[in-house]
Amino acid sequence: MRILNEEASAGRMRIQVETDEDIWHLYNVVEEGDLVTASTTRREEKSADKLRAERAEKRRMTLGVRVEKIEFSEDDLRLKLLGTIETGPQDIGQHHTLIFENGDSMDIEKRRWRDTQVERLRRAVNDSKKPRIVFVSLDQDDATVAVLRQFGLKEVTTVRSGRSGKQYSEKPQADGYHAEICAKLIPLMEPNMPLVLLGPGFEKETLAEDLKRMEPETFKRIHVYHTGQCGMVGINELMKAGMGADVLRESAVGVELEAVEELMTEIARNGLGTYGPQQVMDAALAGAVEKLLVLDSKVREQDLDDIVRAVEAQKGTVVVVSGQHDGGRELAALGGMGAILRYKVAE
Q1: What is the mean pLDDT of residues 279-298?
Q2: Rounded to two decimals, what is the model's pTM?
Q3: Which CATH homologous superfamily contains domain 253-341?
């Protein structure tokens, strides 16, 4: 993401979408009632002749739409903003849908920008410079390929080895299995992107050797870890256990999962962990919060600037946790807000 123009005090910001993940960040920032201006297509106004109007071709124009409804598609990573046209060359007062994908830009005007919204956009700018992480979680029979985005883990595909029992011819089958995994990985890989191989047994080590042999320029950063299970369960096991922390810390999700795991540990042992809006607010006002964890949906739906300012004023840190991964779901079960404390606060 790029912030092309920042005038938050005047209610305006201009944003350039540079990665798929930026769409998710914008979904968490744009609200009903905002005026969003962007280049779009709409049928040209014609005469009152209804048949001619229906046959009119679409042309590109810049429209400002007052947002009434917001839709986000995780599958194709598109943001739809539905509302009424307020500025533009035609059709003022009529409904229109703005659709945003990677490469698009928009102007967002709000009555008031919350600090948490501005901070989220700035964080998105920094996060977009970090490489995503690709996982292959495998054993001798199956390999699950997944991508760690800025807001969660996405399963891409499963490759099956085709082996059956102990009667398979190991070397030819292994080569075909690994070659197919390689073919699935190549479109996902970008320069300097880490690849994490994990699972039980020794299949992951063999795959690492084969990938380096088949595509040495593509697979320069391979990390291999042992887990008790394969598939998506194995990837979550790896991330929750903090294995490969140096690799995972390169992603926003890795930081979020680590923070949630720390919070859950403190709560379980009746230590320096608390949860719930009122308990966390009391701790923040007492200056006791070392790390504040807030679910992204709460930031999207509520004005939490006061509690964030209280924590940051006492040199605490704030972690906004995506609801799209296991850590976010655990935090949601606690009411969407928790804190790791410097010291216990009397109830």
Answers
A1: 93
A2: 0.71
A3: Ribosomal protein L30/S12 (3.30.1330.30)
